[in-house]
Amino acid sequence: MNEYAFEELSIGHRESFTRQVTDEDVLLFSKISGDKNPLHLDEEYAKATEFRRCVAFGMLGSILHSTLAGMYLPGKYSLILKEESSFISPIYSGDSLTITGEISEKKDFGKLLFIETKILNQDNKNVIKGRLVVKVLK
Q1: Which residues face 16 on adjacent strands?
Q2: pTM score, two decimals?
Q3: In sequence order, what are the residues at sequence separation of 6 or more whose Cβ sits closer than 8 angstroms to the Cβ of residue 86?
Q4: 88: buried, middle or exposed (CB in 10 Å: 19+, 13-18, 0-12)?
């Protein structure tokens, strides 16, 4: 876990990590969220769609923004105030996702960071584009 203080960070600072999406992740997300949509859970149903197989929940990818801020940028001293996600391409179980955040703006008042994010799959395809507003607590 990184422990960046506000003064240690500057525009252009970038952090990233990689995480694989598993079947267990999809099932746990469904259980926690209560979302039982068959596109995510029923192979037979999903085969009849344009995706031809189950799609992982987009929000499952989006929650990795929490890991980005809470563990990497800035890490320990973070509090997410706002999160935006645009779902560009589907995520599937088995995908290896690389989550990257880069500081695009920094405001001294409130110790705020504006972080542009992107999530790429193992084929370097952009699956989620986002933006975070993070308060740095130190």
Answers
A1: 100
A2: 0.92
A3: 128, 129, 130
A4: middle
